[in-house]
Specification:
The protein has helices at 2-9, 15-50, 55-77, 80-93, 95-116. It is mostly helical and 117 residues long. The chain folds into two domains: 1-78, no CATH class; 80-117. α1 (2-9) crosses α2 (15-50), α2 (15-50) packs antiparallel against α3 and α4 (80-93) crosses α5 (95-116). The two termini are 36 Å apart.
Length: 117
């Protein structure tokens, strides 16, 4: 259904072409985020090594660097299709709870956006 809407917005393209473009775009975004996290982790690790006179700060910077590196790996290995399938199955099994959670999330986002003005 989503791929039909994508193809409808671009009459010269098929649904598969539109879907492939979206998947490619998601993959590119995922790589940019993972590369940025990895680069930040490397920079932080270098800075932590330079802070020899401050062992506590160096330790926390090294720990933060490790967390960023793990986050980068998690972003790289994230399986969007599997997560989407799991989410759809959950919604089918618990439609009432899903609607309540979506409503609560919308309410929270609305409150946050109102406060930011």
């Amino acid at each position: 259904m989503e791929t039909e809407n994508l193809a409808a917005n671009n009459p010269g393209r098929t649904a598969q072409e539109a879907c492939a473009d979206v998947k490619c775009c998601i993959e590119n975004i995922r790589n940019v985020i993972a590369d940025t996290l990895h680069g930040t982790a490397e920079t932080l690790a270098r800075k932590a090594a330079e802070l020899e006179g401050q062992p506590k700060v160096s330790h926390y910077a090294g720990q933060a660097s490790e967390w960023l590196e793990k986050s980068a790996e998690c972003v790289r290995t994230f399986d969007y299709a599997a997560t989407d399938a799991k989410f759809r199955d959950y919604v089918r099994q618990s439609p009432g709870r899903s609607i309540l959670m979506a409503g609560a999330a919308g309410l929270i986002i609305g409150v946050i956006l109102r406060r930011s003005r």
